[in-house]
Amino acid sequence: MRRVAIVVLVAAAAAASPAAQRPTFRAGVDVVRIEASVMNGRSAVGGLKKENFAVTDSGVPQAIDSVSLDRMVFDTSESLLGPPFTALIAATDRLIDNLRPNEAVALITFSDQVRVAVPSTLDRAALRAALTGLTAAGATSINDAIVLSLLHRPPSATDARSVMIVFSDGRDTASWLGSSQALAAVRRSGMLVHVVELRPEAGATNFARELAKAGGGRVWSARSAGALRELFERVLDELRARYLITYYPSGVPAAFWHNVKVKLKNARGEVTARPGYYVGSQ
User: Fold this and answer.
1) pLDDT tens, 143-163?
2) Structural domain harbouring 7
3) pTM over 0.85
4) What is the pLDDT of residues 214-272, one digit of tens each?
5) What CATH number is associated with residue 15?
6) What is the rounded CA–CA span in Å between residue 282 and residue 266?
């Protein structure tokens, strides 16, 4: 079966330092940055301060230093031919309409091959031209597309907070890489990852849930092509309400993987954040 999918990468200029993309520390001197979103039902929760958050690193409570209130990948396989593909293009075009002027976007498509359709750019016309030229064909290589997208971070990524939005119908049929390799790459990247799935069955696939968990994002499931536009707008609304939580790690071992938990204090909402970070080259 011929199929197609898409990945979109969005990088917004922010005051974060290069460490924002891969939180690490050495000898307890580097700051850790964890992005988190807070939702109350379908509404993003704004206006929270550092007093409203509690963070533990490897089980050890941390003193929060500050809290401040940000690539696309698309499936273009044949399984999306017809209305689903048309709806995907329309939803993506709507997302582009709602981006801020300083938000650069890269567009990567994947079917049986992964292709960088548009490198990171602020040129909305180039993005729309690429969307217009997309066709649904081939098998789906979502694992390969995710890893390639991470390798194609825009040059500005060291000065920006980057987001990957992955769209697919959830079935990988052609990747060289396994799902465990894709998930490991996301965990180490520091990239925030959201997943939008189109599938007739209720609920998300296991891989989508694991991918979003590894990237500190959410899974958004649509059971019909007509729901895609609304879902993409909800994703964008949540991205606008991300909090950047910073702290200097204290009392934790400076090695390997660090589990990070973020909870709310004196506020209502559901927190979604990256599950942790690697130290050094691990």
Assistant:
1) 888 888 888 765 544 444 677
2) 3-278
3) no
4) 988 888 887 777 777 777 777 777 776 678 899 999 998 777 889 999 999 999 999 98
5) 3.40.50.410
6) 36
Count of structural domains, the chain: 1
Number of Cβ within 10 Å of residue 273's Cβ equals: 22
